[in-house]
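User: Run a structure prediction on this.
Assistant: Running it now.
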Amino acid sequence: MVVPDETSLWFTTTDDCLNRLVGDDRIYIFGLPTASALTLDLKLDSNGNVWYTASAAGGNPPDIIGKLEPATWTVTEWLVPTPGSMPASLAIDESGIVWFTETKGNKIGKLDPTTNTFYEFPLPTPEGRPWYLSIDSDGNIRFTERHANKVGVLSPAGQMVPEFPVNIAFLIAAASVAILVLRKNRLGRAYERR
């Protein structure tokens, strides 16, 4: 879901459409050109265009990066070069380049819409299955690998930075220790005040 202004929002329902809620009671449904494509993620660019990822059920083709221009209701769709790659999450950088995860293709994708050019960057971890993606203040592409329990980073120039393992048990243990230390410090201060 994305919120362009205080009176409306755009959302997906994993159908072959984009939906817009206006006010509290009006929903508009915009059918997409590829009827079998199911929308997954959407973002707004700096011009108010709605970008989306779409894939057929089960991660089969077609795999699409699309753009709806609300000013003219024009939809443009690009087919991702790797069939069955299942584009999931996307983000748009300051230059208007669209970055996206290819979950089943195990890649990070890049689309330059001004030249209609795709670039794909394979992940170092086999079957890492990238899912969520964002762009940090330095322009690096940060993404999660849901099957590898890692966080990866791709530079704007396309260089993979070593991945960071995410150990859930370690995070839980570290959080528990931090809570115990904070609690002990608070109890100690409360005791000193008596």
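The chain has one domain: 2-166.
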